[in-house]
Amino acid sequence: MHQHKAPGHASVTISLKPIGGVPGDASAEQMEAVADIAETFGFDELRVSHEQNLILPHVRLDDLDKIYDALVDADLADGNQGLITDIIACPDLDYCALANARSIPIVQEISSSFGGGERQHAIGDLKIKISSCINACGHHHVDHIGILGVEKKGQELYQLTLGSSVDENASIGSIVRRGFDGDKISMRWKPWSRPT
Ligand code: SF4
Question: Which end of the chain is more exposed for a tag (fewer CB within 10 A), N or C?
């Protein structure tokens, strides 16, 4: 929920980032449910954000409980906006011929690794973005952790960028090194359980 300039109102972000799910996806039934919520509580207005979530830009504070209940019913009440599981991902190899490496399975692994219980809330605000090629549709180069799919000798690899910022002190992050494999990026690889 975010403050609104009109007293008694707020804007509400609806997360499309279920834990372990495909970022930005919604079923036909969920889209119908969100359309109904926007019609009933949101002055018929609904926006899609670049963060691959939905936004009800104007709702009454008095309706927040009802909106939450409707989102629970639609399985859309993940309260993870801005957390480690709120990952922006490009559609990768299955949908874009330019992709060098898969991004969605990597996102699902990271989300599953960190989304359980209170873990993501304990970590706090942390933005991860992933693009499957240098066109950077996921804007991987401008946030806390950026992942870029690269191809080397037919192998899908990932380049990591850390420490970018898009606030008033905008800065480009540092590339850690070239070519991590997917297991290391997605946390399937556990350094304490598998010797290098
Ligand atoms: S970043 Fe590359 S692979 Fe991903 S959607 Fe954009 S052009 Fe396609």
Answer: C
3-class secondary structure, 179: coil
| Topology of the domain covering 88-186 | Sulfite Reductase Hemoprotein; domain 1 (3.30.413)
Q: Nearest 10 degrees: CA dihedral of 38, 41, 42, 47? A: -40
**The pTM of the whole model exceeds 0.85:** yes
- Domain positions in the chain are 2-73, 88-186
Residue 3 CA to ligand 1 centre (angstroms) = 33
Q: Which residues of 150-165 are buried (b: 16+ CB within 10 A; e: fewer)?
A: beeeeebbbbbbeebe
71 alpha carbon – ligand 1 mean position (Å)? 31
> At a CB cut-off of 8 Å and minimum separation 6, what does 72 contact?
none
pLDDT value of position 174: 87
Q: Is the pLDDT of residue 179 over 90?
A: no
* pLDDT per position as a tens digit, 61-113: 999 999 999 999 999 998 899 999 999 999 988 899 999 999 999 999 999 99
CA 86 to ligand 1 centroid distance, Å: 19
